[in-house]
Model the fold of this input.
Amino acid sequence: MDRLSTLLTHFGVNAGTFHSGTFCGTTGFDGEQACGHLHLLQVGELDLKLADERTLHLTKPTLIFFPRPYRHRLFASDATDTQLVCASLTFDGGAGNALAAALPDYLILDLDDVPTMAGTLEWLFNEAFGGICGREAMMDRLFELLVIQLLRHILSNRDQSPGMMAGLADPRLARSLSLMHDSPGKAWTVAELSTAANMSRASFAEYFRLVVGQTPVDYLVSWRISLAQKRLREGKSIALIADEVGYESPSALARAFRRKTGTSPREWLQEGKRR
Done:
């Protein structure tokens, strides 16, 4: 069972490197951009001011991950010889897609605490400071690889807030969630999903709600609507989308879509274009 590949097939990440080298002064991110960010502090010192006005003083090699738009500010003195590598991150399907929405607002990790990423980090820093042709294209791909490794790291941590990632990190629920992710068009029943989890129907339903924060039926609808939103952005017709995500007609999908989002698919798409 692969808990991540289906998610990344639907909601892959695209990185764009925008800084590599010495960093000094102040740079702010207002959270209005339609992207997240990944900052890597290689050496030196860095002050990170978060949206809640807390300021963290970082003195060790550190990874700073914002999967969605989030207000923050970076500051470094020219006396600290701070070396920083940064990229913007855009998930397919937009910042509100099911995967991006399931991640924490931010993640701050000492690089020494993530040894599984050591090879990728070394390669990325070599590209960043090596001046080799094709470096930016290579760095973009390495940042994307780093995000996949970060997702693996998150799934290895059972201490999470309720949501998709908490469910995928739970060995009793991971298979049921993966079945819904892999086959969203199937009319899954709680009985079928509880069998996959090797739990009684009642125990499964209660445990799923506790860990994921939704009932299994509500989660399946949310997953289907998230896929529908991505397909709408891609220009697919609602008739094709309805068949793909398990609704017997476009009107049935439209009703479920309105219940979840408060708007029709057409209205939602037009609002997104105006932003």
